[in-house]
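Let us walk through a complete example step by step. Step one is to write down the protein sequence. Step two is to encode the small molecule, zinc ion, as a SMILES string so that its atoms and bonds are unambiguous. Step three, shown after the inputs, is the structure prediction itself.
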Amino acid sequence: MAIAALSISRMLFVRQLVTTLLVLSLCVGCGSSGSAPQAARTSSSSGYNGKSPIKVIATVGMVGDIVRNVGGEHVEVTQVMGAGVDPHLYKATRDDVQTIMGGDAAFYSGLMLEGKMADTLVKVARSKPVFAVTELIDESQLLEPEGSAGHYDPHVWMDVAAWSRCVEVVGSALVDLDPKHAEDYHKNAESYRQQLTQLHEYGLKSIASIPEQSRVLITSHDAFNYFGRAYGLNVQGVQGISTESEAGLQRVNDLVDLIVGRNVQAVFVESSVPRKNIDALVEGARSRNHDVQVGGELFSDAMGDAGTYEGTYIGMLDHNLTLVTRALGGTAPEKGLNGKLSHAGGPAK
Ligand SMILES: [Zn+2]
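Step three: the predicted structure of the complex.
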């Protein structure tokens, strides 16, 4: 059934893609967008030329990782954005455009994650197959943040079960591009999906080991709403707190109430958040005789360094799940699901 849906969407391809992306590019910055996951599939005779390996371009690491896992030896993946790059703000450089045009096919996440690359993807789609890996995720699985007017939260890789639908999109795309290796793609997709299922179950079990009242994730980035929904954490943002305004002070007090009232052991921060706001939380809790630690750094929009375990999608989520579990008083192995984590032992000093 999924395959049939894909074929239909292919027939509509360029017109739909170009329209969608043009609308999206007009909307960048206006905070609103019309529709659901943009179906971006094309099939073009000037795309893949049949040579092996297929040269695939991926925007972000999480997408590239699916292609690497499903494509195996038959693909060569070039990733546009590396570790630590913010995909919301990234604009393709002239070199990137050349790289993308030099590939046989391109994969991106979609849901407006790569908002500033819309124009580039439109251009590429005129002559190459372009795929949004999130296109099969059911709308009922997508979060629509308040005030976003139909614009879905793009951080869906934080829910491993939802993200695993993307494996299907990549599998079908590779089979279409290179039917002679179809069997390998099916086999690889199945094995990767199994690893993701295992990771998801590990996440459920680990987070459930945190005392129920302490399952609160206080973090600075808005990337963790799917994570909270999937694994059962109440997610609270630190963003926008300023102790210089009354509203800011109120927010600090509310969060301190929550930390003390629910015996929350750690808050998770990123370097972009002013330290004094975090200090205000820590001190506020301490003044009420509750010790809260500053947890280590979570991966949000980019994976860790290439060549490390954290530089894979599975490693990235294993890190987040394991770190959060251990810092909030739950039980998880120090080195995570696969015994490969390098620094998820507990809160950073
Ligand atoms: Zn983000």
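Step four is interpretation. Residues 2-203 form a domain with the Rossmann fold fold (CATH 3.40.50.1980).
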